[in-house]
């Protein structure tokens, strides 16, 4: 027989004596009967003669073991050979599963042979090489088949992931086996099962899964305008994409789920509905399908992508839309159910569904994040775009919610505009008009919007679930804490450099503080039930905001004072005014100070509340006057010409100083404030008295002093007046007499 020829050919180094298969079989039979004889021999001889038996027994036993071993090796070699032959036949007929199973049989025979200790055969190396070659050969064939079954047509790699490249991707799936293969069942099944038998399926599917995610599933999630469309030809099914109208404002999870479902249905129908029959004898375990294997590989990444790029965007931003979100949850459930039916998914409620069901918490998180982002944008926008507010400007308060049923106080049901100076705390108590009055001034329009955002968010909070309500309440508190931290640092340079911005920022802080007094109040019915200790208040933030506004403005005042003193320091101490050059320097210094004050008066006009404006301008003018008085009073010698020139410099200050008070844009309305200058400038009368002294004779000075009861005594000490007299008058008896009266 043929068998032996092969065995002889292949194994002649090992069994040169074998001539034929019958030979082999008869040898096996011979061995078997030998063994039977031996057994009988042992039994008979032992009984006959024990002494002889011991030695003989040992020998026979060893012979038996040797023969048994040789026999089992021959059997395994025979099995290996048969398996390889049957594998070859099956491969030619494209019966891939059968072929793969034969290869696995050959492999297990070889493993048995290799595990025999102390039995090293040169032949094993040859067999092992043969097996490897045949396995690679089979995998190559399977790979070729697989490439025909699922064909990717992909764009050139440079445009990696864009809408463009998605539209150039196609997947072709072969649908009908060609005629001669029909016996092997659907080719897909046999190819994939053969891969499974050879343990290579995982690698193949992983690559397929990655391509599927990159070119099909993720683009469908990321680009709402991308539409899959399918085309069925006689023997191939094609999946392509086209771009619909991009509808940016509309991002519906339902549509995305439908598209993804379509893709999985196609794959399920043409490629993956294949049970992976492991060639195990016990068919008890349930049949694992390909869909399940692929699902395991890609589900996690797919579900992350769906959450991040689809569900996150669909979380509503206001509570009224939360109701409609039920639909999204339903469609998420259906999507999962469909995937389970196709066996892509196993197990219950995945992360995807948990995310959708947890919409309330996401809503609150998203809402809070949106609020903070909006607030931050407002805070980092320009300060100098302002709006004017007056005591009767309204913050549009949204419609306030009803108080709890057990509460006897009923709040107004209608939406009400509350003027700034009249906050209606409870229906029965009307506060005096000015308790919460905000003076007319300018604030940044961004701050007005910020306040509206705070009211809007609190209103939203009162309509939300408890958890959400608490989160929103705290995010409103965060807005204000953020303002406190962000604005002074973000706008630091401008607040130092630009006096107008410092004034606006001051107003902004006062405006916020003003609203924080009552902000929690309008919503307290709803909020106090939830927040422990009725903490629904913002009053604790008020002092901080007032301080923030004051500090910024005072810092600006210090800068301005510094500049005034710096300018006056170039006036050469106001000494020797009869020297032309000295007089020019002093005159220039006075002019510059007035110019600086005039400019400030302009940039703060209509910005600061009038009373603060007058105080600020008064303080600065006072700084200038005080400095001039101090310098002149310290002079040791003032000639008549000096005195005249000093007087004319002072007159400039007194005439032009009040004109820097222009709190209002309408000139005629500013007169009143200019006349009130003595109220705001502490040293005004001192300055006027100094001017009188510069022009007076000794007797007039003594009269102005009037024994320490006159107007002069109200402004200067005796020592200062005496010093001025000594500087202004020659040392005469009359001067001595006058000095004696000043005490």
Automatic annotation (TrEMBL):
Q: Which residues form the Centromere/kinetochore protein zw10 N-terminal domain?
A: 2-84
Database matches in InterPro entries: Zw10/DSL1_C_sf (IPR046362), ZW10_C (IPR048343), ZW10_C_2 (IPR055148), Zw10_middle (IPR048344), Zw10_N (IPR009361)
Q: Does the keyword Cell cycle apply?
A: yes
Tell me a GO biological process for this protein: endoplasmic reticulum to Golgi vesicle-mediated transport
PANTHER family in the record, alphabetically?
CENTROMERE/KINETOCHORE PROTEIN ZW10, CENTROMERE_KINETOCHORE PROTEIN ZW10 HOMOLOG
Task: Give the family per the record.
Answer: Belongs to the ZW10 family.
- Spell out the protein name for this chain: Centromere/kinetochore protein zw10 homolog
